[in-house]
């Protein structure tokens, strides 16, 4: 089957739409989670949502809706525990996570379903989404994206400094719960794409990648959303175009592609930061005394290989930990 | 309307009484320096006055409104006592300062021209205009502190609380901050400043309040940095007339247990 034929198949088009919206929504919430240093929150909510899916299987209702409900409950509970500031809040969260996963597996068994039926939620099954599922995904993802972008100034302030935000008159508790609920919703949105166990990757990895290269919050958010979309669409396409017979699952492919993006970006980011540090202008105070360098082996210039750093009205060449400033025929130590 | 009226305020942290019997009334345009040793309750008092710590007892009125009903938060600015301004995601200096303008912004509205001007002004005042696009994480500790001051100034508050804003800030920038606070004061703002060293801000202070072990030990005319730690401070009718002991001997001496670190 040619690529053109493949992409004209309805199930593939549905999968592409679902991937697009998931890729946009998950990193949008993920940015705020990372900003609050709660990068693993998505993981926790994913575990909790397993119970939700199992409840859906047991009661014969749509697992998507039961997962949303249970994940939101879990999110609010986590927020309450966090707000109470229990010293062992960390442990309480862990209990909730494991409870969610164990409960889910247990209830699935009770429902008389095999682990296989749970598996499509654990690891994703984007190519089997129905038209209704796609509509739900679009609706929920659009809700997440508009909230994350529209309320960006408020969510940024609350995530940056809660106390300041409170004195600024923001209802911090409302925004905290809002972020938790958005996280829960996007976990469920991403459930069909990458699966509950890998959800957090799509929320966190694009953010980690984009912040290698960015300095402002807005560009981090925008770039994370772009990277998330690239990874989820790219991963799906790679999986679909894999040679006939090879069983390449879209969920893990998307996550690995996203991670590959991080692996490629990280050294670039490290190099850019290093270069920015080297080239940052020196404070323009005049040197303490006029000190001429020892006999100098070569002339500094654009091609000498030593970093030229602005220092007031001239440049200093960084040479073996010294700063050499051209002065007439010799160099001064600055 | 009186900006701050706290009567018989008490604060307990996890059941342990920290502030007791604090009465504080600050009038419009006053510049109050809140002084005292480490752990004497200065930050706790500021946090109570900004509503961050609930009062266990007593009554707080801000601008004549009971705290429970107060919602004029754009009139209040706050510079928390904090080591840095960073979070888990990069944020530019401009973005951090702009978040101080939220009090005056309506939901889902873009920044108005007045908002941008106020943000630019605040950056100018703390001398960070040329670093507005840099990430806050790339700033030094003192520069981050200055960004937090700018964030509070951006909201153009009428009552501003600064909790050790000059900790780690060099003298030229303390002078710049003093200039900014003088400007705010001229515009009629009320200022409550927590500090261990007044430095260039000393000239602005109208009134000193000294905390000791969760109570107000002194409330009156400005003091020098040394007088604050005078063990006689706060005993009625002694501190005005009591000749201050001169201790210029070089032998080590036992200091009063109430005395904080210098
Ligand atoms: N979060 C907290 N939990 C428990 N005790 C606290 C907490 N915050 C402050 N305290 C206690 O309250 C008392 C007053 O603390 P506070 O931070 O107000 O002191 P401070 O005067 O601001 O000191 P510093 O000069 O060090 O900033 C201290 O004894 C401290 O131990
Ligand atoms: Mg303090």
Quick tags:
heterodimer, A: 334 residues, mainly alpha, ABC transporter involved in vitamin B12 uptake, BtuC, 4-stranded antiparallel sheet, 13 helices, 68% helix, elongated, B: alpha/beta, Rossmann fold, 6-stranded mixed sheet, 5 helices, 23% strand, globular, binds magnesium ion
Polypeptide structure, described:
The complex is a heterodimer of chains A (334) and B (262). Chain A is mostly helical. Chain A has 2 domains: 3-200, ABC transporter involved in vitamin B12 uptake, BtuC, CATH 1.10.3470; 291-333, no CATH class. Chain A has helices at residues 3-8, 10-35, 41-59, 63-84, 89-110, 115-123, 131-150, 152-160, 162-167, 172-191, 199-210, 217-241, 250-279; strands at residues 308-311, 314-319, 322-327, 330-333. In chain A, helix 2 packs parallel to helix 7 and helix 4 runs antiparallel to helix 5. Chain B has 262 residues and is an alpha/beta fold. Chain B has one domain: P-loop containing nucleotide triphosphate hydrolases (Rossmann fold, 3-Layer(aba) Sandwich). Chain B is 22% helix and 23% strand. Chain B is built from 5 helices and 10 strands, in the order E-E-E-H-E-E-E-H-H-H-E-H-E-E-E. Chain B has helices at residues 42-49, 93-98, 113-125, 141-154, 171-186; strands at residues 4-13, 16-26, 31-36, 57-62, 65-66, 76-79, 159-163, 190-194, 207-212, 215-220. In chain B, strands 6-7-8-3-9-10 form a 6-stranded mixed beta sheet, with helices on both faces. A 4-stranded antiparallel beta sheet of chain B has the order 2-1-4-5, with helices on one face. In chain B, strand 4 (57-62) and strand 5 form a beta hairpin. In chain B, helix 3 (113-125) runs antiparallel to helix 4 (141-154). Chain B is globular, with a radius of gyration of 19 Å. Chain A binds chain B through residues 31, 34-37, 39, 150-151, 153-154, 156-157, 159-161, 163-170, 207, 211, 214-218, 220, 276, and chain B through 47, 50-52, 71, 73-74, 76-78, 80, 82, 85, 87-92, 94-96, 98-100, 102-103, 105, 107-108, 133-135, 138, 151, 155. Adenosine-5'-triphosphate is lined by residues 13, 18, 36, 38-44, 81 of chain B. The site of magnesium ion has 4 residues of chain B, from helix 1.
């Amino acid at each position: 089957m040619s690529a053109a034929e493949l992409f004209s198949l309805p199930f593939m088009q549905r999968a592409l739409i679902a991937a697009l919206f998931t890729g946009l929504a998950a990193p949008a919430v993920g940015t705020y989670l990372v900003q609050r240093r709660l990068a693993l929150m998505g993981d926790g909510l994913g575990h909790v949502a397993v119970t939700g899916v199992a409840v859906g299987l047991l009661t014969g209702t749509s697992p998507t809706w039961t997962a949303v409900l249970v994940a939101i409950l879990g999110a609010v509970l986590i927020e309450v525990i966090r707000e109470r500031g229990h010293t062992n809040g960390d442990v309480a969260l862990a209990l909730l996570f494991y409870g969610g996963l164990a409960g889910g597996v247990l209830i699935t068994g009770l429902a008389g379903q095999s682990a296989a039926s749970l598996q499509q939620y654990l690891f994703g099954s984007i190519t089997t989404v129905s038209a209704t599922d796609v509509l739900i995904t679009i609706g929920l993802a659009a809700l997440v994206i508009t909230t994350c972008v529209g309320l960006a100034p408020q969510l940024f302030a609350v995530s940056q400094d809660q106390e300041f935000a409170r004195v600024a008159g923001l209802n911090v508790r409302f925004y905290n719960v809002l972020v938790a609920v958005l996280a829960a919703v996007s976990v469920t949105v991403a459930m069909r794409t990458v699966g509950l166990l890998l959800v957090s990757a799509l929320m966190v990895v694009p953010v980690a990648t984009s912040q290698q290269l960015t300095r402002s919050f807005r560009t981090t958010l925008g770039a994370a959303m772009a990277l998330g979309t690239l990874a989820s669409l790219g991963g799906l396409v790679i999986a679909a175009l894999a040679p006939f017979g090879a069983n390449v699952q879209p969920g893990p492919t998307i996550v690995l592609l996203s991670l590959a993006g991080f692996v490629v970006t990280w050294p670039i980011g490290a190099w850019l930061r290093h270069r920015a540090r080297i080239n940052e202008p020196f404070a323009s105070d005049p040197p303490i005394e006029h000190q001429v360098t020892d006999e100098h082996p070569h002339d500094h210039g654009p091609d000498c290989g030593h970093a030229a750093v602005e220092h007031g009205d001239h440049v200093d060449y960084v040479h073996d930990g010294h700063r050499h400033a051209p002065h007439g025929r010799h160099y001064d130590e600055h | 309307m009186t900006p701050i009226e706290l009567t018989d305020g008490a604060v307990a942290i996890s059941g342990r009484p920290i502030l007791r019997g604090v009465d504080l009334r600050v009038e419009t345009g006053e510049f109050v320096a809140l002084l005292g040793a480490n752990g004497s309750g200065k930050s706790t008092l500021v946090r109570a006055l900004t509503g961050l710590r609930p009062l266990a007892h007593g009554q707080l009125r801000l601008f004549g409104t009971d705290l429970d009903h107060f919602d004029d938060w754009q009139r209040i600015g706050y510079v928390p006592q904090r080591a840095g301004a960073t979070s888990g995601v990069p944020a530019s200096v401009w973005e951090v300062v702009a978040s101080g303008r939220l009090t005056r912004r309506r939901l889902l509205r873009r920044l108005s021209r007045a908002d941008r001007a106020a943000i630019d002004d605040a950056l100018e005042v703390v001398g960070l205009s040329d670093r507005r696009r840099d990430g806050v994480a790339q700033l030094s500790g003192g520069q981050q502190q200055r960004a937090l001051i700018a964030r509070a100034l951006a909201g153009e508050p009428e009552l501003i609380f600064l909790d050790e804003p000059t900790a780690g800030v060099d003298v030229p920038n303390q002078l710049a901050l003093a200039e900014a606070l003088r400007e705010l004061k001229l515009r009629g703002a009320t200022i409550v400043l927590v500090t261990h060293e007044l430095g260039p801000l000393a000239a602005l202070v109208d009134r000193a309040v000294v905390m000791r072990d969760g109570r107000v030990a002194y409330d009156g005319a400005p003091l020098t940095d040394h007088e604050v730690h005078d063990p006689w401070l706060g005993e009625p009718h002694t501190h005005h007339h009591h000749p201050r002991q001169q201790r210029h001997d070089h032998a080590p001496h036992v200091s009063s247990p109430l005395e904080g670190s210098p």
